[in-house]
TrEMBL record:
InterPro entries listed in its UniProt record: Inositol_oxygenase (IPR007828)
Pathway per the UniProt entry: Polyol metabolism; myo-inositol degradation into D-glucuronate; D-glucuronate from myo-inositol: step 1/1
Main location: cytoplasm
Binding site for substrate: 46, 103-105, 145, 162-163, 240-241
Organism whose genome encodes this protein: Urochloa decumbens
Family matches, as Gene3D superfamilies: Hypothetical protein af1432 (1.10.3210.10)
CC terms in the record's Gene Ontology section: cytoplasm
Record field: transmembrane: none
Cofactor: Fe cation
Known catalytic reactions: myo-inositol + O2 = D-glucuronate + H2O + H(+)
Similarity section: Belongs to the myo-inositol oxygenase family.
Protein's name in the database: Inositol oxygenase
BP GO terms, sorted: inositol catabolic process; L-ascorbic acid biosynthetic process
Binding-site positions, Fe cation: 116, 141-142, 214, 240, 273
C-alpha cells in the first residue's frame, strides 16, 4: 500500500503572536497551535541547567547514557530485540502498559506516558485534520518505552529514553551534556571518533546505527510488522529524539535525499511532541474509538514485539 502525502509548507517563517483575548505568556505558531512559554514545572522547555525538581535526575541519566551507549552495546541490543520474540499484542494493549512509567530523561514533564501520547496526538489532529497517519504517529511514537517493562527485560532508563545520536562516528558537541561522552570507550577509538567514522557522506540514516532506545525499537516493530504508515511516519518514530539533527542541524552529512524530505515532517511533528507537554488531561475513553480506527487502518490486530 502506497500513501501519498503533501509536503508541509516550511519555507515561510511562522508568525509569533498573542492570540486575541489570550494570555500574553502564550505564543501562536503556524497552523494555530498554541505554544506555552513554560513547561509543566514553570520552566523553559528543554532547559537542562534550570534548577527544577528534575535537574539532578536528568543530568545523572545523561551521564550514564553517554558512557554506556557504545557501538558494541547498541549492536547487541538491536540484534537481540530485533528478533521481536518477546510477546504478541495490539497497539492499544501496549499503550496501556505505559501507564506505569515516567521518563527520567524528560526535564519538562513527570506524568505517565499515556498522557503525553494523547496530548501529542490530539494537538496534531486539531491542526492537521486530514493527515490521519500523523495523528497515529503522534499516538504511538513513544511505545518503544515498553522496554522498561519487566516482560521486555526491564531495561534501565538510560537504554530506553533520552536524546538519540549516531553510534560509530564522532559525537557532535551539540549533544546535551556532551562532556560525559569522554568516558565512553568509543570516544577514544580511532575507528569511531572521526566525522564519518564507519559511514560515508550521504549514506542515508537507514544505514546509520543510532543509540539504542525506544525510538529505534518502535521503528523496528512498525517496520517488521509491515505497518502501512508512510515513510515519513516511520522516520518520525525512529528519529523524534534525534535532537542534534532536527534542532541543531548536526549529522546532516550522513543524510540522503529521502531523509531530507522526511525531515520536513519531523520538524512539524517535533513542535507537538515537545510543546504539548502540560498537565492538561485527555479523556481517554472519548478519543479511544477514533484512534482504534487508525490502528486498524495502519497496523495488524496483533504485532510481534
Amino acid at each position: 500500500m502506497t500513501i501519498t502525502i503533501e509536503q508541509p509548507q516550511l519555507d515561510v517563517v511562522p508568525e509569533s503572536k498573542v492570540p486575541a483575548g489570550g494570555d500574553p505568556a502564550e505564543l501562536v505558531l503556524d497552523s494555530g497551535f498554541v505554544v506555552p512559554d513554560a513547561n509543566a514545572f514553570g520552566k523553559t522547555f528543554r532547559d537542562y541547567e534550570a534548577d527544577s525538581e528534575r535537574k539532578e535526575t536528568v543530568e545523572d541519566f545523561y551521564r550514564v547514557n553517554h558512557i554506556q551507549q557504545t557501538h558494541e552495546f547498541v549492536s547487541r541490543m538491536r540484534a537481540g530485540y530485533g528478533r521481536l520474540d518477546k510477546t504478541e499484542m495490539g497497539i492499544w494493549e501496549c499503550i496501556e502498559l505505559l501507564n506505569e512509567f515516567v521518563d527520567d530523561s524528560d526535564p519538562d514533564l513527570d506524568m505517565p506516558q499515556i498522557e503525553h501520547l494523547l496530548q501529542t496526538a490530539e494537538a496534531i489532529r486539531k491542526d492537521y485534520p486530514d493527515q490521519d497517519w500523523l495523528h497515529l504517529t503522534g499516538l504511538i511514537h513513544d511505545l518503544g518505552k515498553v522496554l522498561l517493562h519487566p516482560s521486555f527485560g526491564e531495561l534501565p532508563q538510560w537504554a530506553v529514553v533520552g536524546d538519540t545520536f549516531p553510534i560509530g562516528c564522532a559525537y557532535d558537541e551539540c549533544n546535551v551534556h556532551f562532556k560525559y561522552f569522554e568516558e565512553n570507550p568509543d570516544y577514544h577509538n580511532p575507528r569511531f571518533n572521526t566525522k564519518f567514522g564507519v559511514y560515508s557522506e550521504g549514506c542515508g540514516l537507514d544505514n546509520v546505527l543510532m543509540s539504542w532506545g525506544h525510538d529505534d525499537y518502535m521503528y523496528l516493530v512498525a517496520k517488521e510488522n509491515k505497518s502501512t504508515l508512510p515513510s515519513a511516519g516511520l522516520f518520525i518514530i525512529r528519529y523524534h529524539s534525534f535532537y542534534p539533527l532536527h534542532k541543531h542541524g548536526a549529522y546532516m552529512h550522513l543524510m540522503n535525499d529521502e531523509d531530507k524530505e522526511n525531515l520536513k515532517w519531523l520538524h512539524v511533528f517535533n513542535k507537538y511532541d515537545l510543546y504539548s507537554k502540560s498537565n492538561v488531561r485527555i479523556d481517554v475513553e472519548k478519543v479511544k474509538p477514533y484512534y482504534m480506527s487508525l490502528i486498524n487502518k495502519y497496523f495488524p490486530e496483533k504485532l510481534r514485539w
